[in-house]
Amino acid sequence: MSREARFRQIAVELGYDFDGEIKVGGNYAPLVVHDDLIYISGQIPRVGDTVVIQGAVGKDVSLMQGQLAAKVCIMRAVALLLRQFETLDRVRKILSINVYVQSADGFTQQSEVSDGASEVLYSIFGEAGVHARTSVGVFQLPKNAPVEISLVVATA
Amino acid sequence: MSREARFRQIAVELGYDFDGEIKVGGNYAPLVVHDDLIYISGQIPRVGDTVVIQGAVGKDVSLMQGQLAAKVCIMRAVALLLRQFETLDRVRKILSINVYVQSADGFTQQSEVSDGASEVLYSIFGEAGVHARTSVGVFQLPKNAPVEISLVVATA
Amino acid sequence: MSREARFRQIAVELGYDFDGEIKVGGNYAPLVVHDDLIYISGQIPRVGDTVVIQGAVGKDVSLMQGQLAAKVCIMRAVALLLRQFETLDRVRKILSINVYVQSADGFTQQSEVSDGASEVLYSIFGEAGVHARTSVGVFQLPKNAPVEISLVVATA
């Protein structure tokens, strides 16, 4: 199965449509390409106009919902790559992801939340999707998102 | 108008002088150049010895003051680039910025705070200043700064 | 003294053994090499199965213990580099480190915590260890770690 087909299959499994426009406000870009490096802006679990899961993980949001949010964030990032290149075959390696988890007091399973994102990347890209990762628990995120993920990607 | 002229004009508008020495403590550097990549250390809104705005955005610090703090952070970063190269023409592209906002409980407008920084970058560099961006709300920042910003920049 | 000898000397001083397996869970890697760049995943002060210092700096964990935790994080990262290349001579430059400090309310000495890590890098690598640095205070960290550090490194 192609990377694009796996992307679409995961979108169906999650029940969200990532084909719509991905809105970006202000004087910044959803992604920036420099030589063979791509910097992708922090993605929150927004589909269309709606942040589909909101709140702090460990309080308003369960671990499982947090993992789902991480999957939606990473699917948005992959959708941006697909829009940029019209194929996912140009992705040579996912180099690094930063996962910011809006965390309730005492919640320490940030790595487990991130596993949702890592799993999607591996499903779509296989070995090329195995990345360095940093997971931290932050106090607040834009629009009360439970998770935000930024990436650095290498292209072929 | 040259990039340097726009930089100086914004400094006048903000009412701060970025020509003084930018202090860095410890065994690290304000910026590191590697081939055509520049990594700039996290900048807080310090002018000379003073962190000019302090506290958590959404409590001690208003959104507008937070945006001002973000502008001061990014002006410091641009001042570092100017000192390194003696011109801003060597900046080929602002690749990525990370904006950390010391946030009060319930404050979710981190992106709006970051807009202050993005606006300055666009004013000085135009299209070359359009960057990938990640904004998160952290619990505390060094010296009680409301905002801290790090960057990756590509040089010509 | 060689870089490896200084690394081993610091390990003895800290009283921890960094020769054991460094465990990584999930579909991500402890480090990813791309051309001459290395992205190292966020390291917490874990030795073997144990996070050797736990809690928030400024409450459960003193500044000095936080600095020690930062040293253990960075020693893990150096151990990963040593394992990858079987020598530390391949490290051309430590480009950038991100230091996340799990911070108590009102604790603003994140930079001082990071100094522990910067000092170790300078001790081992000299000028090649002088890096860009971003220090922030986060709300929670995985496994209740007081510090987490990620790095970007350039190889020869």
Walk me through the structure.
The structure is a homotrimer of 156-residue chains. Chain A is α+β, with helices and mostly antiparallel strands and 156 residues long. In chain A, 33% of the residues lie in helices and 28% in strands. In chain A, strand 3 and strand 4 form a beta hairpin.
Layout of strands and helices, then pairs:
Three copies of one chain form a homotrimer.
Chain A: H1 3-14, E1 31-34, E2 37-43, E3 46-47, E4 50-51, H2 63-85, E5 91-102, H3 110-125, E6 132-138, E7 147-155
Parallel strand pairs in A: 5-6
Antiparallel strand pairs in A: 1-2, 2-7, 3-4, 5-7
Helix pairs in contact in A: 1-2, 1-3, 2-3
Question: In short, what is this structure?
Answer:
The structure is a homotrimer of 156-residue chains. Chain A has 156 residues and is of the alpha+beta class. Chain A has 3 helices and 7 strands, in the order αββββαβαββ.
